[in-house]
Amino acid sequence: MKLKGLYLVTPDYFNDQVIKATERAVKSGVDILQYRNKKSSFREKFENGRKLKTICDEYDIPFIIDDDPILMDVLDADGVHIGKDDVPFDYVKTKFPGKIIGVSTYGNVDTAVKYEKLGADYVAFGSFFHTDTKEDATMCDIKILKNIDKLKIPVFAIGGINRENVDALLNYGISGIAVVSAIYSYPDIESQVKYFKEELKKYGIE
């Protein structure tokens, strides 16, 4: 499965409007979807996740679960994304062979290299800009992206990305951008997806 382009992460709350907004975004050209939900019960996560997986299957894009390999397994999602305080990487790699594993490496390229050697499928750096989506987000210096040529796996940037700053990131040759509010906060979701897809295309990311 393609691991590049426009990577959409769901907001950390759920209702029917979020499901509808997600379907509109995926239909418009989102390349990867991550289901992030740290507030609902497991049953609610399962019910929402099942709807999202159906959308991803219909449009043939990777469906990634944030932080929860058990939910990934139950939903038969394509993979899981983990951070520094989540389930150990070795456990996921051993227990779920063949699944996509993405890792948040914040602002540390050496950590990214380490996880690449352990078998990570992609890494994410950020946050590079202020974001209200994740209040405790680690802020990173954009200049760390100068060193991503040490990596052979896809590299995504995340955190506060919008129309005004996306070019600054794409100049570094990353594989894609991960966004939340840049899509969900706008009534015209289709226009937002189109804009980011066109920006990615300008830098040869399709």
The SS-based structural class is alpha/beta
Q: What are the secondary-structure elements, in order, as H or E?
A: EHEHEHEHEHEEHEHH
Number of helices: 8
- What is the CATH level 1 assignment? Alpha Beta
Give the integer mean of the pLDDT values: 94
How large is the radius of gyration?
16 Å
Oligomer: single chain
Strand order in space, largest sheet: 1-2-3-4-5-6-7-8
How much strand?
A: 15-25%
CATH superfamily: Aldolase class I
CATH topology heading: TIM Barrel
Shape: globular
If you had to describe this structure to a student in words, what would you say it looks like?
By secondary structure, the protein is α/β, with parallel strands linked by helices. The chain has a single domain (5-202), classed as Aldolase class I (TIM Barrel). Helices cover 38% and strands 17% of the residues. The chain has helices at residues 16-28, 42-59, 69-75, 89-95, 109-118, 166-170, 181-184, 189-202, and strands spanning 5-9, 32-35, 63-66, 79-82, 100-106, 122-125, 155-158, 176-179. The protein has an eight-stranded parallel beta barrel with strand order 1-2-3-4-5-6-7-8, surrounded by five helices. Strand 5, helix 5 and strand 6 form a beta-alpha-beta unit. 43% of the residues are buried.
